[in-house]
Structures are given as C-alpha cells and as structure tokens.
TrEMBL record:
Annotated positions for site Transition state stabilizer: H182, R243
Protein name: Acetate kinase
Described purpose of this protein according to its UniProt entry: Catalyzes the formation of acetyl phosphate from acetate and ATP. Can also catalyze the reverse reaction.
Cofactor: Mg(2+); Mn(2+)
Active site per the UniProt annotation: D150
Pfam families, sorted: Acetate_kinase (PF00871)
EC number from the UniProt entry: 2.7.2.1
InterPro entries documented for this protein: Ac/propionate_kinase (IPR004372), Aliphatic_acid_kin_short-chain (IPR000890), Aliphatic_acid_kinase_CS (IPR023865), ATPase_NBD (IPR043129)
Residues annotated for substrate binding in this entry: R93
Classification via NCBIfam families: ackA
Keywords of the record: ATP-binding, Cytoplasm, Kinase, Magnesium, Metal-binding, Nucleotide-binding, Transferase
Residue sites binding Mg(2+) per the record: N11, E386
Length: 402
C-alpha cells in the first residue's frame, strides 16, 4: 500500500477560505486556491491544480460551509477529492490558541470548544476557523484534523514582555496577557532567513516584519521568539490594512463617554475602519502607493503613519535584542512594496541598518538580501509560506501519533 503523503491546509478568514493540497514527499502543491467574498453577491472561487487549467467560478457562496463544499467539488474533479486515499491529514490555521495551545493539536470536540471560548479575543478570525474545522470534520470524520495556532511560536515570550501593567488579579481572572499572532509565519520566515544567510538560527538575532492585511513584528533570538507586537488580540502593534494597531486605551473611554459610541461601534472602528482604510479609504497598499505617487495627501499621510510605526518598532526591537543580525520583511506588503521597505529602514544607518536601492527595486519571488555589502545588519526579503509550515507540523504530529 502506498503511504498517504498529502495534507490539505485550510486557512479560513472572515470572508475567504484559502486552501492548499501539499505533497509532503517534496513540498509540491497538488492544488491550491481560494474562495473570496463569501456572503457577498460577487463571490469568486479560483482553483489552480498542479496539472491542468486554472478554473474560476463566479457565484454566490452564502457561507463558509457552501464555500468549502465547492472546494471539495473542485478537488474531486481533479481526482484529489477529500475522499482520496492519499490524504493523510487536514491542517487548519487557527489564530487564537490562548494559554493552552502552544503546539499543533489533534482536533476533537473539546479542542473546538476551547477555540470557541477564545472568540471574544479573536473576533475576526476564530469564528471562521471553527467553521472550516466543522465542515472538514463533517466531510472526513475519519481523518486526523490538526489545529496549528498563530499564537504558538510566541509562547516563549518572557513574562516581562507578555505582561500588561494592569492589576494582576483582574488580568489573571480574564487571562489578559500578550499572546501574539502570525507565529507560524514568524517561525517559518526566521528559519528561512537563517538558511539564506547560511547561518545556524541558534546564533542569530532577528527582527521579522510580517506585513500583510494584518501586520506584526517579532524579535527572534536563537530561533526563539522573545517579543512580538500583537497582544491579547490581533489589534495591538503595527498599523494594518483596517486595524489601528497601538492607540491610547484612553481613546475608548473618550469615544464612549464624549463621542457617544457604543463598545461594539468602537470595536468595529478600531478593527475594521482604521489603519490604512481609516486614514485614506484604501486598505490595499498598492492603491495607497499609487495615490501617494499622484500627490494625494490622505494616501501620503497613511503611508507616513504606517512607516513611522514600523521604524519605531525596529528601533524598539533593536533595544530588546541588544544586537541585531538581520531585519526580515515578509507577507504581501513586505515582499512586494519596495517603498515601504526603503522608508522603514531610512535613517537607521547608525544602527547598521541600510537598504541598497538597486537590490530593493528587484522584483522576485525568491528569498534575497537587499542590504549593501558593507551593511552591518543583513536586510532581507523572505517570502512566507504559512501553508507549508502548517502542513509540515500537521504531518509530523500525525506521524508521531502512529
Ligand atoms: N505589489 C504590491 N505592492 C504593494 N503591496 C502589495 C503588493 N502585492 C500585495 N500587496 C499587499 O499585500 C497585502 C496582502 O498581504 P497578504 O500577505 O496576502 O495578506 P493576508 O494573507 O493577510 O490576506 C495587501 O494589502 C496588498 O496591498
Ligand atoms: C492574526 C492576523 O492578523 O491574521 P491576518 O493577517 O490573516 O488577518
Ligand atoms: Mg497571510
């Protein structure tokens, strides 16, 4: 009998599902795709099999269950269906794992209940993650389903960095502490950056900047995370597409007491109507750059605020680490937006951080250095691959269990 080596990875977001079917023999993709605008009139599924034509379906996907059923159909059409004997496991990205989950976890009813209990601290993410899990479990109840948590890699952050300076009893009662997110990406990228540098992760201090729709920074020392910018929820830290990042908690009281906004309205404001979209009306960095290039003042301010926060975090994490060997950019903005990388590192040459304009301008999907030869700190662009990391961790867990 041939061994099952395929892992299906599901990354269910609030209005999208991304999926990849990965062969663990060589990390190749048997298929990949996404369903976007779930619940809207203009839904879209894009399915890319390794062999054959890419397929697009334009239709309404009423909810995540319908979207996942459509994904299952597309896979089945390629003889890669969820019923395929080649499937070893399904790996799920789960954003918030709280204090309990610091490692990949085999999913059962009790694990789902715990992920559900954490919804209030990851309201944009955990509900969608749960739907993905429930639909996949219903379709393949016999198959191991593994949760890989965004918070796991940050479980090593020291108490001094993980603790908010608030009343300890209240914090303990409500499990208020800094958890951090995007950990699977920070873990994958910090290891890939060490490979790019030809060094052992154990001897490196790095600042990793994951700049996607959500954005976060982390300080990684000897392969272990020692500080990260997101906190109790994925709202703290850097400026994001629709989230404010750091803001004075006092503004919540002000907007409530003086502005008359309800708590739910303030939640919506800070999570969905702030960041780049709040400042200039666009959450896509490509649009922000295009408009700023045409002299649009709102877009320019959005860019400036975004980059100022980044530079501030690079400086802070330099202080946390004491010595920095590499600054690493990743995710959609980090991998593609040269002006963001250039501006984030501008004025940091006293710290040994410099960007070579010609190297920075190169467009490539490969991990690469963008610092000049004489730079004391390596500045790198390293594409993230959360799905491959999730597949590896899920596959390893299933094999350990056998
Ligand atoms: N060429 C580009 N230039 C600038 N920004 C880009 C480019 N390509 C993608 N992005 C940005 O990347 C972001 C999405 O990043 P991504 O890592 O795919 O997000 P997520 O996985 O969180 O959905 C978007 O804001 C988009 O504007
Ligand atoms: C945790 C988080 O912010 O994830 P994303 O960037 O996918 O929204
Ligand atoms: Mg992402």
């Amino acid at each position: 009998m041939t061994e099952s080596t395929l892992v299906l990875v599901l990354n269910a977001g609030s209005s999208s599902v991304k999926y990849q079917l990965i062969d663990m023999l060589d990390g190749s993709r048997a298929a990949a795709g996404l369903v976007e605008r779930i619940g809207e009139v203009n839904g879209r599924l894009l399915h890319t099999p390794a062999r054959g034509e890419r397929r697009e379906r334009l239709r309404v996907f009423a909810d995540h269950a319908e979207a996942l059923a459509a994904v299952a159909e597309e896979l089945a059409a390629d003889d890669l269906g969820l019923g395929s004997p080649g499937l070893a496991a399904i790996g799920h990205r789960v954003v918030h794992g709280g204090q309990r989950f610091a490692a990949p976890t085999l999913i059962d009813d009790e694990v789902v209940a715990e992920i559900r209990r954490l919804i209030p601290v990851a309201p944009l993410h955990n509900p969608a993650n749960i739907v993905g899990i429930e639909v996949a479990r219903a379709l393949r109840p016999d198959l191991p389903q593994v949760a890989v948590f965004d918070t796991a890699f940050h479980s090593t952050v020291p108490e001094a960095a993980a603790t908010y300076a608030i009343d300890r009893k209240t914090a303990e009662q409500h499990r208020v502490r800094r958890y951090g997110f995007h950990g699977t990406s920070h873990q994958y990228v910090s290891r890939a950056a060490a490979r790019l540098l030809g060094r052992d992760p154990a001897e490196l201090n790095m600042i990793v900047l994951h700049l996607g729709n959500g954005a976060s920074a982390s300080a990684v020392s000897g392969g272990v995370c020692v500080e990260t910018s997101m906190g109790l929820t994925p709202l703290e830290g850097l400026v994001m597409g629709t989230r404010s990042g750091d803001a004075d908690p006092g503004l919540v009281f002000h907007l409530h007491r003086v502005g008359g906004l309800t708590i739910d309205e303030i939640d919506d404001l800070l999570n969905r109507r702030s960041g780049l979209v709040g400042l200039c009306g666009d959450n896509d960095m490509r649009e922000v750059l295009r408009r700023a290039g045409e002299g649009d003042g709102d877009a320019q301010l959005a860019f400036d605020v975004y980059v100022h926060r980044l530079r501030k975090y690079i400086g802070a994490y330099y202080a946390v680490l004491g010595r920095v060997d590499a600054v690493v950019f990743t995710a959609g903005v980090g991998e593609n937006a040269a002006p963001v990388r250039e501006a984030a590192c501008a004025g940091l040459s006293a710290l040994g951080i410099e960007v070579d304009p010609a190297l920075n301008a190169v467009r490539s999907g490969a991990a690469r250095l963008i610092s000049p030869d004489h730079g004391r700190v390596a500045v790198a662009v390293v594409p993230t691959d959360e799905e491959l990391e999730i597949a590896r961790q899920a596959f390893a867990l299933v094999h350990d269990d056998i």
